[in-house]
Fold this protein.
Amino acid sequence: MRSPKETALDNKLIQTIHDFALSGRAEEAVRLILEDEEIQAMQEYANTVSIKRLSYNDHGPVHMRTVALNALIMMDLLRRAKIKTSLEMEESGTFEDSITAVFCAALLHDLGMAIGRQDHELHSTYLSYPILERILKQVYSGDIQKQTVVRSLAIEGITGHMASRAIHSIEAGVLLIADGCDMTKGRARITMALAAGPRMGDIHKYSANSIEDVSIRAGTEKPIRIDITMSSEVGIFQVEEVLLQKISASPAKPYVELYAIEAGKELKRYL
């Protein structure tokens, strides 16, 4: 059974896609993925392994939906700034195809946590492949070319979301940053409550627990502005060692401004 948080995010995702006023293919993909029982089950088990077995923070349904929403917001900001996606520049697809690939990647990128943390992005690719085949055949019925392009782009986003492997598309770059932006303290809440002593991944949960808010909006100099608000300096780990590293590895970096502020201190600009 889905949590109220998941349901609220589902509604927000559907509305966000609907507001793009596209042909309907992306919205169909969103609905198919959000309603898919296998995807839901895999997300939930990945989260169980992440939190209960490994003592990491949230890598489940709420996280993947949050990443998807972050990515959609950034894709919209790029579109408003008239920045073309890689598919558009290469004339391989439309903005809607890019949106479909990014959304698919966001909802599937951490499935590999069901197996373990090490190389989980690679585990996610082979777990996601048959799901992408099934979903995209329905969305792009009879269009093998589009199925191939969108599937390949989604897999690039999944394999590249840890910034440990080079990616080359704006779409995968947006997903990489969107993943890094899910760092607020709610993501570490359950892990903190279950903590019984020092364990692997502690720096992630403690630093995430100090992040009060992450805001994504239009920048003044670049299309995307990200603002991080933190309650203590331990949150700097999330900003500098996680998010900044992901932005630096992203093909979308030229379009991003990054700011952080700790309570009682001056706003610091990173990008």
Q: What stands out?
A: The chain has a mean pLDDT of 92. Residues 52 and 98 are 35 Å apart (CA to CA). The radius of gyration is 18 Å. The chain has twelve helices and four strands.
